[in-house]
Amino acid sequence: DSNTVIKWCIFPDLFVFNQIIYTAKRTHSRSFFYLVLSEPRLAPLCLSAPQQLVGVVGLEIHAQINSNTKLFSGSSVRFTAPPNSLVSFFDASLPGTLPVLNKRCVDAAVMTGLALSCTINRMSLFDRKHYFYADLPAGYQITQQRRPIAVDGTLTYCFLGGKKRSQVIRKTVNIKQIQLEQDSGKSLHDDLRSQTLIDLNRAGVGLMELVMEPDMSCGEEAAAAVRELQLILQALGTCQGNMSEGQLRVDANVSVHKPGEPLGIRAEVKNINSVRYLARAIDYEIQRQIDILQRGGTVQNETRHSSLPYLFLSPARPPIRFMPEPNLPPLIVYEDNASLPTGIDACQAVVVETIRKVLPELPSVKRDRLVQTYGILPEHSFTLVNEDGLVDYFEAVLKVTKMGPRKVIGWVIKELLGHLKQQDMSVSQSPISPSALAELLELQETGHISSSVAGQVFQEMWKSSGKTALQIVQELDLGLVSDTAQLHSICQKVVDSNPDEVNAIRNGNKKVLNKLMGLVQKETKGRADPVLVRAILQEKTLLKSDC
Ligand SMILES: Nc1ncnc2c1ncn2[C@@H]1O[C@H](COP(=O)(O)OP(=O)(O)OP(=O)(O)O)[C@@H](O)[C@H]1O
Ligand SMILES: [Mg+2]
Ligand SMILES: [Mg+2]
User: Fold this and answer.
1) 248 lines ligand 1 (CB under 6 A)
2) Residue 272 and residue 291: Cα distance in Å, rounded?
3) How many domains would you assign to the chain?
């Protein structure tokens, strides 16, 4: 009875409460269940149910600037160079050497700041961040701690959610700052000889550190934000964004709290170099902290390394001391050419307006444009933009064929991208050019070949790169069969040998006609003109032509 249920309601746990309602529903009449829900004294219980702990995520992202030379020296930047072959005296920190700022790196940071709607500081400063590490010969890193080059930006990212993962969910994370800084060298640990080898090729390479506010709540969001940032940087050309080569490295700061309460203590998972692993590491860390708090423990402010197996702790970081870098003057950027002081060469100065003018189309704008211009599905616009060169390919095909964009997108994503992925190839390596694919689609569109034959021709074109669609159709005699007499005879054969199907159609099951059409196509290896075949079969099975 209802009194019993109300007594049980003293359980403060919403899950237990739901269980009781569920049991009540199963063991009592429906009306009883509704009676319970309409009980006014139950509402406060639902509202006062304890809030769940949720994850809070703030990312620091180190993006290697796409530049031929390092941030403060003229040494080249090349990932594959032999160890210690790209090291200048300054990179090795020999006494008496001085930093010379690389303008290309400043331009890249300003461009990235503009693309992320940051305020560009007209004056920024360089600082020394001291810590001891074998791959940091100077004993400090030159960074921008007091006044970075760009502040207060946003990154809007999307991911596919909902039941079918086809609903576009759009979120925004605030960017606290973008700072210019040097990369360190690389330590290579040789466990067999118990040695650590140092490669200084990376020492002094220009980095942009993007510091995000703790606005995200789970691994999926963080992964989507990093993926979007990667696409933006690649579109700008300011960073190649290859995570496996360390061009984009993520530190994930993770804490848990109850919404509305102050943020919890953060643990930092450092140097994550894959988007998938980032999502897993964050979700693991959130769950680890929830488990600790639920057992009555406290979360430690610690650094957790991302190398496998995850969960290897590093000792607490020694205190870091900052001091202004005495060898570099304040970095000044100018709004436009008009604001340049006399005597300063416009080519030598960093001018924000000049960089703003050459900002390329950003991925989110590109996706919206593709959906609006071509009427394709949002999820298809994601696939197109995610694959380097695929948008250009798609648009190049559309320029040549009369086939509609919604049909073309199917070919580009299913056939072309499917084949490329299978063979681990990039779009630029495709053996079928956009104009060659367009020619094939045109043959289908103008009724020269059927859609199933078009698929067959695609396979042939892929294998015999260089042959045109028309050549293959002619060589293999794949043209559409439109000879009415020939089709009549094939249809008659199919009708005669499938009396059950014909009866089913005569009794009103019109769908069975498709089966007969399939059998005719089988006979003709997919070459029969489908419009003619349908008409002939309808006639032979005594259906009216409007069916
Ligand atoms: N309670 C919190 N939970 C999760 N993330 C947090 C929390 N507090 C701060 N963060 C995130 O931690 C990061 C702090 O980065 P910041 O570069 O300012 O400091 P740092 O980690 O001490 O420095 P660095 O690692 O560069 O030496 C930011 O991305 C911020 O969003
Ligand atoms: Mg930082
Ligand atoms: Mg940090």
Assistant:
1) no
2) 23
3) 4
